[in-house]
Design the sequence.
């Protein structure tokens, strides 16, 4: 049996950690932003989650959309910054 | 981005009917709440390695789905069972 | 950072690589130290220089790890500068490699090589250029796929979520047939010097045929391409982007003879390749990107004429093709083939000293 020594073709990985934004202690009373990327059923999924959370989140929610092919524009981000937490749905 | 709370649902989504989408939403609602409130560092730690194993997964089992529960909407599958005309 | 090594039974190399998920399914050339070093003779950067990280796995890109995969693909060492330039092009943010790798769409990075290096390496731009038979096309294209798999982690069904994939995900590399083109070559159009060599990357579906066997004038050829490209099943119909038309030299000659330059063809495609909105709205990705398509009726497949890429590829015969793309989430990127200091490389042979 001939043994050959070969180089491994799989690269090392390097990821960059970013600290998460501070969260509210509880969801009760929090204002939640819902960001829909407009792919099919992303909005319906958000609706379903929002319905589950309705009892907790008593503040009026903010619903925004973004194009799935690009980052949310600054105007959308500015609105979302007024929220305590944001949920983005990314559909297939 | 390690630590970003990404909460997966079974693929696909686009072809699902309203009932299945609602079920998928209900199934992750608790995880969404957990990701939205509380200590950020704890949340990041919880999610830090959640998908790492996927990046190292080998293909020895063939091309496999990310999630064993991924499936066509059963309502669609049932209708497709007849095979059409 | 030095690349790890393993010892395997030479007679069972392919099984060992397949078991570890390191192959594209085809047999590979053993990436021995000697072969990798021979590949790196055609690179004037340090073997461990970090060129970036490749998504979605965030693999660290170095000349050495690229060379390992190029050896596995069967590249001759002199092909390596093209592989390196193509990877650098894919890592430019405009290319959006993360999305290209992970999408359910079947796009694959297509390499279009321009300039004298294409002839030096024998990259086929004539008969059957998109097909098999020429080592440079086959192995440079395959090296890119192995890199996307092993460095970028785009294993099908895992981090590459393409619903069906496509054959061009094995290898997708051609040269432009500049000698038989009546027009300015692609790289010159894109601002590079005529004597320079470049590689242009576009995230594309496989070639879709444009067959016109009967037209003796431009009108018929244009009608044929308009009929074929008015395609509700392509992403461009809903996401714009930069599709490519690769004209066969006969079609290109007829168009040029009738006075059609590239800009006129672009205007024609922008105006004539349009889907009636009532049809467009029945399926596809209707309603998902309304901000891109505010009120157009009929709906064009490109946002602006300048977004259409035009090249000449192929031998004689009455076929051309077009390459629909992933959409405007990825942009076409051209990269000069250069030395490490950015000096254009006249010949790859100059690198080997």
Sequence:
């Amino acid at each position: 049996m001939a043994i050959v020594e070969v180089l491994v073709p799989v690269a090392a990985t390097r990821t960059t950690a970013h600290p998460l934004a501070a969260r509210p202690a509880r969801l009760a009373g929090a204002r939640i932003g819902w960001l829909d990327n407009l792919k099919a059923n992303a909005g319906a999924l958000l609706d379903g989650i929002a319905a589950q959370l309705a009892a907790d989140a008593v503040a009026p929610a903010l619903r925004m959309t973004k194009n799935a092919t690009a980052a949310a524009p600054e105007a959308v981000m500015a609105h979302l910054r007024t929220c305590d937490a944001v949920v983005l749905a990314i559909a297939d | 981005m390690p630590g970003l709370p990404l909460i997966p649902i079974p693929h696909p989504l686009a072809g699902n009917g309203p009932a299945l989408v609602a079920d998928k939403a209900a199934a992750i609602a608790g995880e969404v709440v957990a990701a939205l409130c509380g200590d950020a560092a704890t949340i990041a730690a919880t999610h830090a390695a959640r998908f790492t194993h996927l990046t190292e997964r080998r293909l020895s089992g063939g091309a496999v789905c990310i999630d064993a529960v991924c499936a066509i909407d059963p309502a669609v599958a049932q209708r497709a069972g007849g095979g059409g005309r | 950072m030095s690349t790890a090594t393993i010892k395997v039974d030479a007679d069972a190399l392919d099984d060992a690589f397949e078991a570890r998920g390191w192959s594209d399914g085809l047999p590979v050339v053993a990436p021995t130290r000697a072969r990798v070093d021979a590949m790196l003779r055609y690179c004037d950067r340090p073997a461990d220089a970090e060129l970036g990280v490749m998504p979605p796995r965030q693999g660290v890109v170095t000349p050495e790890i690229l060379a390992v995969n190029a050896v596995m693909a069967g590249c001759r060492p002199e092909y390596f500068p093209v592989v390196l330039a193509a990877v650098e092009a894919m890592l430019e943010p405009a290319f959006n490699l993360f999305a290209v790798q992970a999408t359910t769409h079947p796009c694959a990075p297509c390499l279009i090589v321009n300039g004298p290096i294409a002839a030096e390496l024998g990259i086929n731009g004539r008969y059957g250029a998109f097909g098999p038979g020429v080592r440079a096309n086959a192995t440079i294209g395959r090296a890119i796929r192995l890199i996307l798999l092993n460095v970028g982690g785009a294993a099908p069904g895992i981090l590459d979520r393409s619903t069906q994939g496509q054959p061009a995900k094995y290898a997708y590399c051609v040269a432009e047939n500049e000698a038989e083109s009546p027009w300015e070559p692609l790289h010159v159009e894109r601002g590079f010097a005529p004597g320079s060599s470049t590689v242009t990357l576009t995230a594309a579906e496989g070639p879709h045929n444009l067959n016109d066997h009967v037209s003796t004038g431009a009108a018929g050829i244009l009608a044929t391409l308009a009929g074929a490209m008015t395609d509700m099943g392509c992403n461009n119909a809903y996401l714009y982007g930069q599709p490519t038309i690769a004209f066969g030299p006969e079609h290109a000659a007829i168009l040029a003879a009738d006075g059609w330059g590239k800009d006129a063809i672009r205007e024609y495609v922008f105006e004539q390749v349009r889907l009636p909105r009532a049809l467009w709205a029945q399926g596809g990705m209707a309603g998902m990107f309304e901000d891109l398509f505010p009120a157009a009726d009929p709906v064009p497949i490109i946002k602006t004429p300048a977004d259409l890429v035009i090249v000449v590829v192929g031998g004689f015969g009455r076929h051309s093709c077009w390459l629909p793309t992933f959409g405007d989430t990825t942009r076409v990127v051209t990269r000069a083939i250069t030395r490490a200091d950015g000096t254009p490389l006249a010949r790859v042979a100059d690198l080997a000293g």
